Amino acid sequence: MTSAREPRPDFLLVGAPKAGTSALHLALAAHPDVFVTTPKEPKFWLCEGAPPPHWGGPGDRHSQQEWVWQEQAYADLFRPAPPGSVRGESTPFYLWHRGAQRRIADALPEVRLVAVVRDPIDRAYSNWMHLWSDGLETEADFETAFARQDERVAAGHAPFWRYRDLGLYGEQLRDLYKLVDPARVLIVRYRDIVDHPVETVDRTCRFLGIREGQVTSIPRDNSRPYVAPGWRPRVFGPAVRGGAWAGQFVPPEVWRRLSVPLVARLQTSDAHRPSLTPAQRERLLPAFAEDIALLSDLTGEDFSDWLSTRDRGSFAERVRAR
Q: What's the rounded mean pLDDT across residues 116-136?
């Protein structure tokens, strides 16, 4: 591979949000043969030569300022790559977004795609926890927030608010395989990132055609401290959401810098993230059961453990339990 090639990715981490893509991205970024973009998630293939829609959820308009939608700007992200490096970026919404799938298939006929998947209930819970602990989610009850997905989609919330849809990997891969040779897609399980980190990185390296044995660990994922319901979210939550709304009128780095002390006040707590109860998981399973079966059929792998009502805990809890 030489620097004379087109400035474009050789691989994409395409999904899923809150499934371990950040941890795998950081591990690959530490590999001497890999170049990854800054920003990590340019979101270019979600766009079609135009700015992203004006999403209406809390913090959405601030966040969308960071989307790289112009072709030249996207190409520029890859120009600093050293000669011979394997270049990639990580936007975990590409797997879910059918338009992104089509654009990637058309424009990058040789790109390799890595999809990280996680128990969809755990993924959705982590998704809610991320937004709740950042002060953006207004629903203190996960199941209530989960049930409001369609209402929020209709109101114009950004993709990250799709607690259910982002975890329907069977449907997503079914559609992707119609466009891309499955041999160019690597499925990585979140549990393998946690339980077998070095082996998982090496497996990914083999898929990308680069040296194994260069990365000896995977960093922890980007989980947030749990914010217990109470006076903190009641006092600081509206301030965070108001600031995020105002942040659309200034460069993204300005609000990001100003929000740090405010979010820190919100997250100052010794509370532990509550586990989902078997009853909660039982109520949520019907949203995913058919798709889990589809995923197993497509991949030939057994995902029936996702039908369990046992909570598996956070990334940190699972690492401690290894």
A: 94
Residue 14, H or E segment: strand 11-15
Q: Which of 53, 49, 55, 54 is nearest to 69 (CA)?
A: 49
Pick from 127, 126, 91: nearest CA to 111: 91
Return d(Cα 185, Cα 173) in angstroms, integer: 9
- Phi-psi label, residue 136: left if phi above 0, alpha if psi -120 to 50, beta otherwise: alpha
Sign of CA dihedral 223, 224, 227, 233: negative
pLDDT tens, position by position, 24-82: 999 999 999 999 999 999 999 999 888 888 888 888 777 777 899 999 999 999 999 99
DSSP 8-state symbol, 306: G
Burial class (CB in 10 A: 0-12, 13-18, 19+), 38: exposed
Q: Alpha carbon 153 to chain centroid distance?
A: 18
Percent of the chain whose predicted confidence (pLDDT) is above 70:
84
Helix axes 169-177, 98-107, angle to 10 degrees: 30
| Exposed / middle / buried, residue 35 (Cβ in 10 Å: 0-12, 13-18, 19+) | buried
Q: What is the pLDDT of residue 2?
A: 44
Find out whether 62 and 252 touch, Cβ atoms under 8 Å: yes
Give the amino acid at 111: V
pLDDT in tens, 81-121: 999 999 999 999 999 999 999 999 999 999 999 999 999 99
Question: Rounded to 5 degrees, what angle do the CA atoms 98, 99, 104 make?
Answer: 100
* Whole-Å CA distances, 216 to 25, 28, 61, 294: 14, 11, 38, 34
Looking at the predicted structure, is the pLDDT value of residue 3 above 50? Answer: no
pTM of the model: 0.88
Beta strand spans in 30-111 (E): 34-36, 86-90
Torsion sign across C-alpha atoms 185, 173, 158, 308: negative
